[in-house]
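Handover notes (outgoing to incoming on-call)

Open items:
1. DUF1343 domain-containing protein: sequence verified, structure written out, both below. Nothing else pending on this one.
2. Nothing else urgent.
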Amino acid sequence: MTHGTPIVQTGLQRLLTEPERLQALQGQRLGLLVNPTSVTNELEHAIEALRGAGLNIVRLFGPEHGVRADAQDMEVVEETVDPISGLPCVSLYGHTFESLKPRPEHLAGLDRVICDIQDIGARYYTYVYTIGLMMQACGEAGIPVTVLDRPNPINGMDIEGNIVLEGYNSFVGMQPIATRHAMTCGELAHYFNRFTDWQCQLDVVELQGWKRTMWFDDTGLPWVMPSPNMPTLETATLYPGQCLIEGTNLSEARGTTRPFELVGAPYVDAPALKAYLESLELEGVAFRLAAFRPMFQKHAGQTCRGLQLHITDRNRLRSLTLSYAILTGIIAQGSRDFGWREQAYEFVQDRLAIDLLLGDPAQRRALEDGADPRALAEANRVARADFEARRTECLLYHD
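DUF1343 domain-containing protein structure tokens:
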């Protein structure tokens, strides 16, 4: 992180420092959809910062992991009062799929809802859908929504993957957007408002100084873990591909200090996997034989054999191609211990988790059949052409 004044001003920072924006919100009863990433440049949380600026925050809304992000992935959050501010709190990640969207009583008495959450840039990351469902609920209730924009941490240029097909929508892919979408939260809000039924009276407080080529560490902004298993920018860089490991019985290294950067299982032939991946000559990544023992979740307490993925050139790395290759390499080993995750995943029980993550079962079948992972990734260009055309219409930042 650079020292001094950040190059980029977030939507929150602009709201706090531009008097006319604050003045327009004075006297309104405000709801606030936030998590730990909702901070100023000085790391003050938006709750305290906005209240300190004289705004009347009357209710908090928490996405997956909660307002303070103390819950693990897919763990039910049952907050009713924020322990720090004392404000009433509505969890938007409960026991059922219906809990993901605010109910009319949750919005009662509010004049506006402000959303401020850092996204990761991959379609599986659920926060953008929480914003979208909030937009839909507020639209139905006649309540305006303000989205305070934040950077896409893995740049706003590089697009990877396909789109989710009808019938494979879930909370890891609720709208037909690319796996790595190269959009900010504010741009996605415009996309939802324009091309989906998540429509409302929308205001986006745009970033200042952000360029699409920037990675998060180019912005000068402080990195705050967006969720418990997203500790670093390196994790986020690998995540668009490595989240696919969640759809298998391989460990994506939750329960270690390097989630998504390590991958393995007790049954993996790590040297053979390394040799296969190196034969593909994938750009931007190097592989190290590794053993790790997760403290919780898959293979907890067992020694997993596998690899650590070392990023050597993030601009050349294509994380989805890499993870396709990891899966084809492990499937080719023929271990009867390998399998796709069959338990319920993000409230869905009648589809394989990998099909929800990939958004298209044909992709899974191609991996099972040993397709060249580079060709599979290249074929996705056609599948996402419509998305790319729509995306272009919603971009707010043009270098």
